[in-house]
Specification:
Layout: E1 2-4, H1 11-20, H2 27-31, H3 36-42, H4 46-55, H5 58-67, E2 74-75, H6 76-80, H7 88-100, E3 104-108, E4 114-118, H8 120-131, H9 152-171, H10 181-189, E5 193-195, E6 202-204, H11 206-212, H12 216-228, H13 238-249, E7 257-258, H14 264-276, E8 279-280, E9 288-291, E10 318-320, E11 325-328, H15 333-339, E12 344-349, E13 352-356, H16 359-367, H17 372-381, H18 398-411, E14 419-423, H19 428-440, E15 444-448, E16 453-457, H20 461-474
Antiparallel strand pairs: 1-14, 2-4, 3-4, 5-6, 7-9, 8-9, 10-11, 11-13, 12-13, 14-16, 15-16
């Protein structure tokens, strides 16, 4: 029998599909990729400890709060006994999360038992965040009254306009203001845009199409993560920028904060946040700034009741009819450009755009990387109040929803699996033994009895290989 490691004919296709889709990380996914020394520096700040604690799964938060004031390791068996055995999978998962985030660590007990104890740095600063005390944050609110004070409605309008400049640039619609070369570099780094092969100008990518249909909070968080990947190249301190971002998420909307005491790197970071609409500052040297709604609770994905911007609120503008026509009551070039991603526009009036959903328009959107669920979700999110009437069980016409999904299924007729090819068996008996082993373990992808060839799941290759060696020695 020959083990052909190169027999992964579908490996390249599977890898291509994975890399072409937009990967939206949450706070846990991002922090677990940071080295331990970076996490240790981050946990020196109460704001970060509190944000991490809020983002933990509910069971993990229970574990942390129960051992927060315990000064010695708690036996692992005791921690496991706090939950029912039917939730053993959840227990294993949260144990993995807390370990990867360096929130807790293993500790030895008398008698050789192993227990869990919170990281000293995380424990100390989480106590400060929950109970008060500690050093003053770099964002100080000790300021004289601002003679040019801004109210919440002004900040909402400002943040919406600044963020929409980025989205306008991505869809290539007409706009009055452009974005800086620095923001363009972030879009290119995030692979939301790429350089055109002919003229070198930035054009939107498959991931960029998917990005446009995300909700506003998810867009900002993903964009900031891509920015943070480049802060060290700019000569900025990642920990310092992350700390300020977390502190910003706990700020009060409509309140001004002083820039006094900020380092030169933080002041540069503040100007970048100003461009993206996360903070408002009248002048660079104004000495104060106002956090906007975009910056509030930015890391809190579990907070479904976070305040929304006006354009993200339930007051939608889209009506979808059973004949596949779409009516968008808007005069925003950005919203029109988003509708055009998956519809064929028919008419445009000063405050109304009429389009139709067709097989070709949906297939074009699918080729751009947009999924059927994203299209349906966008239409639901921005549905007109008349479509949200209480007597209607479904927001969108079921015929339209089902047809969009069917058009997507037309393109998803093949499923790719990474596999390893086994061939050139010396006898039919050898082939049958390995085939039965792979089949019984659920790792057999394909087999051919006549040619004595089979393909097993790539992840199970090592186990299958060990079994074959053991069988070969025994026979």
């Amino acid at each position: 029998m020959a083990d052909n490691g190169i027999g992964t004919s579908k490996l390249d296709n599977s890898t291509f599909i994975t890399q072409s889709n937009l990967e939206c990380k949450n706070l846990y996914d991002y922090l677990k990729t940071r080295p331990p020394n970076t996490l240790e520096r981050l946990y020196n700040h109460p704001a970060i400890c509190l944000a991490v604690y809020r983002e933990l799964p509910e069971l993990a938060r229970q574990y942390v709060i129960r051992i927060l004031f315990v000064e010695q390791p708690v036996p692992q068996a005791v921690v496991a006994s706090w939950g029912s055995q039917s939730f053993a999978r959840e227990h294993n998962y949260v144990t993995k999360v807390l370990t990867e985030l360096n929130v807790w660590m293993e500790g030895s007990l008398p008698g050789g038992l192993i227990g869990w104890i919170l990281s000293p740095t995380f424990k100390r600063n989480l106590k400060i965040a929950l109970l008060g005390g500690g050093k003053q944050w770099s964002m100080s609110s000790a300021l004289e009254p601002d003679k040019n004070a801004r109210d919440v409605s002004f900040l909402d309008t400002y943040s919406s306009e600044r963020w929409e400049c980025v989205l306008h640039y991505m869809v290539g619609s007409q706009q009055q203001e452009g974005i800086s070369a620095d923001a363009v570099r972030i879009l290119l780094h995030a692979k939301l845009m790429k350089r055109d092969e002919e003229d070198g100008s930035p054009v939107i990518t498959r991931q960029g199409f998917q990005f446009l249909l995300l909700d506003r909070q998810a867009q900002v968080w993903h964009f900031l993560l891509q920015y943070l990947d480049t802060v060290e190249q700019r000569g900025l301190d990642l920990v310092e920028c992350l700390t300020f971002l977390f502190q910003l998420s706990f700020s009060t909307l409509g309140k001004d904060y002083s820039t006094e005491g900020m380092s030169a790197g933080l002041l540069i970071f503040l100007q970048h946040l100003r461009e993206f609409g996360l903070v408002y500052q009248r002048k660079r040297k104004a000495g104060r700034f106002y956090p906007t709604r975009l910056a509030l609770n930015i890391t809190n994905s579990q907070n479904k009741n976070a305040p929304l911007l006006e354009e993200d609120s339930p007051k939608g503008y889209i009506i979808v009819e059973t004949n596949y026509r779409v009516y968008a009551y808007t005069d925003s070039n950005l919203q029109v450009a988003l509708i055009a991603l998956f519809t064929e526009l028919m008419y445009r009036f000063p405050n109304l755009v009429v389009g139709i959903i067709t097989r070709d328009s949906i297939r074009q959107a699918l080729r751009g990387g947009i999924t059927a669920d994203q299209i349906i979700g966008y239409l639901k999110q921005h549905a007109h109040p008349q479509m949200l009437a209480a007597d209607q069980k479904q927001t969108l016409p079921p015929t339209v929803v089902d047809q969009i999904k069917l058009w997507e299924l037309e393109r998803n007729r093949l499923t790719y699996h990474e596999g390893v090819l086994y061939s050139q068996f010396l006898s039919q008996a050898d082939f049958n033994v390995l085939k039965e082993y792979a089949q019984s373990n659920g790792v057999l992808i394909w087999c051919n009895k006549e040619k004595r060839t089979l393909v097993v799941n790539k992840n199970a290759h090592d186990e299958v290989k060990k079994f074959w060696k053991k069988y070969s020695k025994g026979s």
